[in-house]
Amino acid sequence: MSRKIWVFDTTLRDGEQVPGAKLNVYEKLEVAKQLKKLKVDMIEAGFPSSSTGDFNAVKEIAKRIGNTDDVIITALARAVKSDIDAVYNSVKYAKNPLIHIVLGTSDIHVEKKFGKSKNQILDIGVDAVKYAKTLLPEVQYSTEDASRADFEYLWKTIEAVVKAGATIINIPDTVGFAEPQEFGELIHKINDRLKNLNDRVLLSVHCHNDLGMATANTLAAIKNGAEKVECTINGIGERAGNASLEEVVMAVHTRSEIYQAFTNINTKEIMNTSRMVSGFMGLDVQVNKAITGENAFAHSSGIHQDGLIKSRNTYEIIDPVTVGLDDMELILTARSGRHAVKTAFEKLGMNQFSDSEFEEIFVDFLELADAKKEVYNHDLYVMIENFYKKVKGNNQDISHYSNNFYELIDLQVISNTKFPSASVELKKADQIIKGTAIGSGPIDALYSAIMNVCDLDMKLIQYDIRSVSRGKEALGKVKIQIEFKGEIYIAKASDTDILKASAYAYINAINSIVVDHLLPVK
Ligand SMILES: CC(=O)SCCNC(=O)CCNC(=O)[C@H](O)C(C)(C)COP(=O)(O)OP(=O)(O)OC[C@H]1O[C@@H](n2cnc3c(N)ncnc32)[C@H](O)[C@@H]1OP(=O)(O)O
Ligand SMILES: CC(C)C(=O)C(=O)O
Ligand SMILES: [Mg+2]
């Protein structure tokens, strides 16, 4: 029988422990609002005793996001009265508040961190739970560093805090030391004893990714009786991060026959949540990251693209729509094969060529792809038009399409503190068009100058630049998102000159808009 797995999101507490990822109260509220849309069961909103700012953020989240029955709001406390008071005084505004207490259980923590005996630490933990219970009925106890603790002491702690009133027992693999088989066995043993002791207490896990096994350990725990999992969006968190929410949830969703479980998560909100967290925290998502990485649903090699065109399940185990994307992406590169290229032409309504003509076009395609890395739809128009010009003397219907695209001829950008300015020269059909602009910075000036030339009402909503190689000749890779008439256009370009890369990316986006909205009717 399928059972529910409770999803506890700690992006705003463990996730926020990432250096530089600190959010202000407004950003925390926005993320919490989005987590509610994602339908997580519990939100750990912060560590209220750490600063007045965090106390206020937790309080606002409790008031504004915790005001309905469908979400539990919690925050973390040490086994210290003032920390517990801070949690209580901030989460108490929620409809369903929970106090979360953490205290070490391994010999290393007990002896080295606290310099106390095991019995002393046990008493501190029990007293903390008893005190928290005088404030709220729901109390979670985290046995920090449980995976490195002596098992009988760990169990003695669990038994004592459950008797003191803890309603959730959380087993953390605090330093990501556990291995899936071993962690599964640990959870199995605890689950067995816990169900005999008090079957209303929820068994939870919290895994870290130091050896890259946070997701695997969390899933092993689910198989062995864990009822609640602690995760973060994009797997962010202390050091190598936590179990990634999207990976755990999509594994349970995709392989439910193995886990015999389900979660309440609205998977269609996964990408929105990932992008918001990455944007606010300034933490890029690794391109090949499972589920939320830029390439997770992008296919670029010919054999895969051919398989996908014939039947999507050849290389696709999750429909991208399930996680909130529009569709899979077939990226045309020099590794693409004939099936993918032909399909791309067909999608643009260009399939009037014979097989032998296509072979010639495909040679041109490979030449362009080798030079340009990624080939866009507007490149296909230009390519086909050039082909017909070459072989048939420019008398085909489609020959007027490329007259609508823009090409960069030259640019000059002056960056100074007072008036950063740019001038550009673009080509459209046989015309050379020039534009100038000032801006708040060099890229703003450059993009304003191009926009003046193209006269399109579009909005730049994201601009990312990164270096993709080392040294003086390093390539700058620019990725942008543009909004035009409510649609989002993503475009990329790379060049050793970052201003040129920025301009090429912008012009790629503009030409994609032209393909969709401004080409003459076929
Ligand atoms: C595994 C985890 O992720 S745990 C959560 C980690 N998160 C954080 O640390 C949140 C941010 N932290 C902070 O703002 C601060 O460290 C505070 C407010 C918690 C404490 O600040 P300070 O009082 O200045 O103490 P400091 O951080 O230097 O040292 C920690 C103290 O707490 C004690 N402590 C650590 N964990 C616990 C615990 N779970 N229960 C009780 N005491 C604890 C330590 O032994 C040390 O005590 P000592 O001063 O008697 O040696
Ligand atoms: C507070 C606890 C659950 C924690 O973050 C850890 O042990 O990693
Ligand atoms: Mg942690």
TrEMBL record:
Family, per the entry?
Belongs to the alpha-IPM synthase/homocitrate synthase family. LeuA type 1 subfamily.
Which controlled-vocabulary keywords does the entry list?
A: Acyltransferase, Amino-acid biosynthesis, Branched-chain amino acid biosynthesis, Cytoplasm, Leucine biosynthesis, Manganese, Metal-binding, Transferase
Residues binding Mn(2+), per UniProt: 14, 206, 208, 242
Q: Which gene encodes it?
A: leuA
Record-given protein name = 2-isopropylmalate synthase
Q: Please state the span of the N-terminal signal peptide per the UniProt entry.
A: none
Q: What is its EC number?
A: 2.3.3.13
Q: Does the keyword Protein biosynthesis apply?
A: no
